[in-house]
């Protein structure tokens, strides 16, 4: 097998080192709290955390709340993506619209939506809607800007070629503009998933009766650091899972790209 | 010439050091965290400051209005950001569950001083706590005293807490949440309770402002808001704790001997709001303020039990009421 | 396949093209007063120095941009936007990276509403013609430069355009591949006898392929001269160079071209990209 580059990268060894690092960290954490170097009230211990998560899974408690959060996240994510692509495309196609709305888009995007969360709750209530709106408000802008750029960046020659080959506007969108913009869109999707989850959790944290944000908020109010951290860990796992799924999806749609990407 | 100067300076210094009023001379900085200064239950602390009782004890008390309600104020106390907090004793018990000690040194109110209010539009539908099943019901914030009490009331009336959608809707935003139908009912505190029910926007399902109502709902005395502090504050600054309690005991005495109008006038305008309404809410809740400022053991024990029923205290855990309060300072202030 | 030789005529009458350069606050004239004809079924090359506007001319004929002054007609009809009877092979790869070879070749048929059953044999025919049978499912990134060029050619020819415009199509290829492609092109052209307008800066290539050569001046591009190429057909690109007339033609045309190339070169050196 030929070596790729001056330094051979052994993924087996890298994985091994990652495991070692993680193990050492956990050990240190456990020791520090048991010996009293750090107050477990504030940071909990790995063993207690693990027990809590295990218990949550066993009783099905966490499944219910995770499901709710995922529901809000995915719903908002899909809606935000759809809107972002639609508007991004419209603006790229009709440049005058883009010019008119540009300052508004930039201003809206600059507003910290997380701070707007209480307002959303006021306007849209304490249920699912306000959380979905939160998520949409975060995802939309990321996807919008990517789509817009992606379509503007389409190779002029491809567009001209398509015209000469006889493409109607419909064809142009479907066969030229969208596939070209898809690269950009996919790149933005992986970023915006993180935002989507944050939006959902923050919304729940501020006003909800279920969901991971609520679980964390309640644990916090009960001074239960274990609960808070366990909740965060579950969220982390969820994000990682979604990211892996998106990576696979991205790979599937990038079949036409030259390697290495 | 030089000697003259020294003497003059020395005399001036002496005047300044010994002649100055005690307050300026020994003003000690103290921070108190409160989750929502406008609420009636925090009146003793707020009054003690606005009447200058703290200043007369030589304390420069800064009241921090902490967003996020009682739990956040208690967190601030545990974390060390504030020296004291005006909090329901529930928070001390929650902390104890997590093996952290907080001590109540003064009783602000003896009852939960809250009411379960239902939106008027559900007048025919919701007649008892059981009718709340499946509906969204508001508490001030997750884990707050309003949350604990609601949980207890539900369980006592045969409703499992997760059969009701309990949502944190804020203290001063509760009326809005009910109006907007984000929640069908909510645990309200004063002064909002009085205003809301007077305006006819809601009706009362459970009234725990009066002694009678509280006893009925809770089955006995229940300790409410207290002044909490950490053991290390007690250890390092016991004199400060005593001074705080002295001022607060005076405040309670004033409260229990004043009329509503007098109270409304004693407070800064932004806290009292509409003086007439404030006076009315005060009269409604007047019984809750203990003239002797003492924390009741029975009241604390009942709180622990209500929290156990709600599973906020684990079934097997034993918590002694005495471990979360200390009446010594009040007793000293009362001269006993 | 025989064709009526009078179809596919191109007429340029006093074509001038100006672009506004807002950033430099002036106008730029790409081509000036260009007039010439291309007969139906003729193979005409346009040669000239860099920047002489030959690519611009091609895109004007294609209808990709409107003329500032003058007229371009195809078989007597003035050019108004993209004409469906026209094919264009771009300089850079303009094939669609996310589509397979077969999808690319079939794309113009899809655009023109040809149903899948009729399209399939035509696509297969052209893929065979360019020698890529077996590569139908490949994506452009898996093909060599020459193969991609062949796909571009097939895409253009599959819908049977009367006029084929080619903008330095083989410029990016290495010499050997280029020669092979040129031969392939001549073969296809000999069979179908379409009008071809071929832009290049390689004079040898132009002479080897064309019936006539139009020499453009340096910017702003004018028609400097038009030379008929009397070499016999069929030609083999590599061997036609050894024909006695080839050298003579080359010398003659190069004399015209050389001066323009030098002018253009001097201009860029002085920083005056006209």
Structure, described:
The complex is a heterotrimer of chains A (261), B (336) and C (274). Chain A has helices spanning 11-35, 40-43, 46-59, 61-93, 95-110, 113-124, 128-152, 156-165, 169-206, 212-221, 225-253. The mean pLDDT of chain A is 87. Chain A is mostly helical. Chain A has a single domain (46-253), classed as MetI-like (MetI-like fold, Orthogonal Bundle). By secondary structure, chain B is α/β, with parallel strands linked by helices. Chain B has two domains: 20-111 and 223-334, Periplasmic binding protein-like II (D-Maltodextrin-Binding Protein, domain 2, 3-Layer(aba) Sandwich); 114-207, Periplasmic binding protein-like II (D-Maltodextrin-Binding Protein, domain 2, 3-Layer(aba) Sandwich). Helix content of chain B is 46%, strand content 16%. Chain B has helices at residues 2-19, 22-25, 43-50, 53-56, 69-79, 89-97, 145-156, 174-179, 192-198, 211-218, 231-236, 238-256, 260-266, 269-272, 275-285, 297-309, 328-334, and strands at residues 28-34, 59-65, 84-88, 103-107, 114-119, 136-139, 165-168, 185-189, 202-207, 225-229. Chain B has a five-stranded mixed beta sheet with strand order 2-1-3-10-4, sandwiched between helices. Chain B has a five-stranded mixed beta sheet with strand order 7-6-8-5-9, with helices on both faces. In chain B, α12 crosses α17. The longest helix of chain B is centred in the last third of the chain and has 19 residues, at 238-256. The model of chain B has no long low-confidence stretch (mean pLDDT 86). Chain C is of the alpha/beta class. Chain C has a domain at 1-85 and 164-172 and 194-274: P-loop containing nucleotide triphosphate hydrolases (Rossmann fold). In chain C, the strands form two sheets. Chain C has a six-stranded mixed beta sheet, with helices on both faces. A four-stranded antiparallel beta sheet of chain C has the order 2-1-4-5, with helices on one face. The longest helix of chain C is centred in the last third of the chain and has 26 residues, at 244-269. The radius of gyration of chain C is 19 Å and the shape is globular. The mean pLDDT of chain C is 88.
């Amino acid at each position: 097998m030929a070596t790729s580059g001056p330094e051979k990268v052994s993924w087996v060894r890298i994985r091994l080192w990652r495991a070692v690092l993680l193990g050492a960290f956990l050990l240190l954490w456990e020791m520090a709290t048991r010996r009293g170097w750090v107050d477990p009230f504030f940071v909990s211990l790995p063993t207690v955390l693990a027990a809590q998560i295990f218990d949550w899974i066993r009783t099905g408690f966490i499944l219910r709340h995770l499901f709710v959060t995922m529901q809000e996240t995915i719903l908002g994510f899909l809606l935000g993506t759809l809107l972002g692509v639609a508007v991004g495309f419209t603006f790229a196609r009709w440049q005058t619209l883009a010019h008119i709305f540009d300052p508004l888009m930039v201003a809206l995007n600059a507003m910290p939506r997380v701070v707007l969360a209480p307002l959303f709750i006021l306007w849209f209530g304490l249920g699912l809607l306000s959380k979905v709106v939160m998520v949409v408000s975060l995802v939309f802008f990321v996807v919008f800007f990517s789509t817009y750029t992606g379509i503007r960046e389409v190779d002029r020659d491809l567009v001209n070629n398509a015209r000469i080959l006889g493409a109607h506007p419909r064809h142009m969108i479907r066969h030229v503009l969208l596939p070209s913009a898809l690269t950009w869109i996919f790149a933005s999707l992986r970023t915006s998933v993180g935002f989507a989850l944050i939006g959902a959790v923050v919304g729940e944290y501020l006003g909800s009766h279920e969901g991971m944000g609520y679980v964390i908020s309640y644990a916090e109010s009960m001074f239960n650091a274990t609960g808070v951290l366990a909740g965060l860990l579950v969220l982390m796992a969820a994000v990682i899972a979604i990211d892996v799924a998106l990576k696979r999806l991205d790979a599937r749609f990038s079949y036409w790209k030259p390697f290495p990407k | 010439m030089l000697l003259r100067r020294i003497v003059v300076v020395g005399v001036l210094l002496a005047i300044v050091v010994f002649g100055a009023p005690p307050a300026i001379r020994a003003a000690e900085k103290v921070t108190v965290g409160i989750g929502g200064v406008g609420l009636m239950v925090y009146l003793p602390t707020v009054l003690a400051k606005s009447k200058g009782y703290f200043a007369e004890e030589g304390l420069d008390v800064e009241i921090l209005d902490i967003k996020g309600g009682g739990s956040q104020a208690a967190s601030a106390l545990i974390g060390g950001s504030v020296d004291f907090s005006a909090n329901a004793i529930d928070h001390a018990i929650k902390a104890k569950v997590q093996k952290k000690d907080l001590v109540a040194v003064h009783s602000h109110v003896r009852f939960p001083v809250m009411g379960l209010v239902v939106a008027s539009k559900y007048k025919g539908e919701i007649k008892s706590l059981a009718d709340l099943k499946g509906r969204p019901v508001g508490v001030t914030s997750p884990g707050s005293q309003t949350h604990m009490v609601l949980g207890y009331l539900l369980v006592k009336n045969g409703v499992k807490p997760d059969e009701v959608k309990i949502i944190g809707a804020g203290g001063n935003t509760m009326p809005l949440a009910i109006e907007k139908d984000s929640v069908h009912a909510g645990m309200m505190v004063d002064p909002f309770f009085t205003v809301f029910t007077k305006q006819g926007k809601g009706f009362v399902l459970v009234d725990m402002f009066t002694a009678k109502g509280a006893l009925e709902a809770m089955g006995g005395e229940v300790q409410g808001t207290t002044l909490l502090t950490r053991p290390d504050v007690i250890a390092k600054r016991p004199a400060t704790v005593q001074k705080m309690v002295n001022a607060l005991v005076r405040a309670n005495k004033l409260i229990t001997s004043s009329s509503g109008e007098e109270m409304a006038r004693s407070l800064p305008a932004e806290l009292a709001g509409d003086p007439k309404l404030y006076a009315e809410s005060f009269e409604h809740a007047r019984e809750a303020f203990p003239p002797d400022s003492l924390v009741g053991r029975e009241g604390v024990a009942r709180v622990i039990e209500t929290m156990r029923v709600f599973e906020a205290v684990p079934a097997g855990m034993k918590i002694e009421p005495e471990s979360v309060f200390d009446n010594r300072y009040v007793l000293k202030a009362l001269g006993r | 396949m025989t064709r009526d030789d009078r179809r596919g005529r191109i007429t340029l009458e006093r074509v001038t093209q100006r672009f506004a350069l807002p950033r430099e606050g002036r106008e730029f004239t790409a081509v000036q007063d260009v007039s010439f004809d291309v007969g139906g079924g003729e193979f005409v090359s346009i040669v000239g120095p860099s920047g002489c506007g030959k690519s611009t001319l091609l895109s004007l004929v294609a209808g990709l941009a409107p003329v500032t002054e003058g007229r371009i007609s195809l078989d007597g009809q003035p050019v108004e936007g993209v004409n469906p009877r026209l094919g264009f092979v771009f300089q850079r790869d303009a094939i669609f990276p996310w589509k397979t070879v077969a999808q690319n070749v079939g794309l113009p048929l899809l655009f023109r509403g040809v149903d899948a059953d009729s399209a399939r044999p035509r696509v297969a025919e052209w893929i065979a013609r360019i020698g890529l049978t077996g590569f139908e499912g490949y994506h452009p990134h898996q093909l060599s430069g020459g193969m991609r060029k062949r796909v571009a050619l097939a895409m253009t020819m599959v819908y049977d355009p009367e006029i084929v415009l080619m903008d330095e199509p083989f410029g990016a290829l290495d010499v050997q591949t280029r020669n092979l492609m040129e031969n392939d092109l001549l073969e296809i052209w000999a069979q179908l006898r379409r009008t071809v307008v071929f832009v290049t800066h390689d004079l040898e290539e132009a002479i080897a392929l064309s019936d006539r050569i139009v020499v453009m001046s340096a910017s702003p591009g004018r028609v400097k001269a038009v030379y008929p190429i009397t070499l016999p057909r069929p030609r083999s690109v590599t061997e036609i160079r050894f024909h006695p007339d080839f050298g003579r033609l080359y010398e003659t045309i190069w004399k015209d071209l050389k001066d323009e190339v030098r002018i253009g070169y001097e201009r860029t050196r002085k920083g005056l990209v006209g």
